[in-house]
Batch of 3 targets.
Target 1
Amino acid sequence: MGMSSEGGSEDGLAAEINVTPMVDVLLSLLIIFMVSQPSPANEQIPLNVPQDSVVQNPSDPNASLLVSVGADGTVKLGKSPVPNEYDALVEAFKNNEKAQEDDKVVVKGDEKAKYGAIITVMAAAHEAGIEQVGVASERL
């Protein structure tokens, strides 16, 4: 009597578990549970959307200080131009009363301004101790 490599016993019966009926039963149960679930509610979620957007005028004393970055990399702190060097930007932010008093500035980059120039201005503002540095966007 030799060993056979077919995995069955001597009388030809396989001693393996047949998983096909088990998978069929599980898939049938899954379909039954999916069909029996109630459909999700089609309720609308209430949203509070502001009616009018806030527009700040440059002459408004309560407006945030606007730092603009031009397409050629020129930086203006309010209406006064600032040198493009990083240390000069930090000093300009430290010496600006409005920026230090409000502890916030808004950076507005030209459409063709380089991303790195805008990030440099934001980093200089943070190094000058300004906590809130925002990015201005155009109205849609």
Target 2
Amino acid sequence: MADSPAEDDIKTMSFEAALRELETIVGKLESGQAPLAESIAIYERGEALKRHCEALLKQAEMRIEKITLRNGQPTGTEPLDPQ
């Protein structure tokens, strides 16, 4: 399924920018002030932002390493969640 033009800009957003916009969307939806058509459109954008944030978090999680210790001293690193 191809991304919509509105979702293309999301791919380049930082996690922080995407999260800020998602929080704004949630606020609009919770206020109930947006017309139905606008609510549906911003809900869909919010879903795309949520997916983007989840993907960025997963990438970050995969990069985190756990420091290994031997006798209380760091001896190196290993993947946080070895598989």
Target 3
Amino acid sequence: MLDETTFRSQCDRALEALKQALIAAEEASGSFEFEDNSGAMNILFEDGSSKFVVTPNTPVRQIWISAQTTSFKLDWSEAAGAFVLPKTGEKLMSLVERLLREHLNDPSITLEPV
């Protein structure tokens, strides 16, 4: 398990990259709105159907995503150099991109590091 300082550093870097990618995708898509709320990222959908929440969970050194009535818990992977979902091996950015595509039924949504 990462020590707290390393976790915070890696987490901040990963979440900032995700934030910038979501802002760019929000402008391109227009079908969702991104909000940064004191460390919790909220992705709100224009149809009001639901929202996704991305938050760091420092005590367990994970990034949690609540989306589509499911909780996704990502762990740091030294090998990948990223937070990944152990079950699928998906990195944070790829997972959020897939969830957005599925929820909006829009395969054109892309999240790319800015």
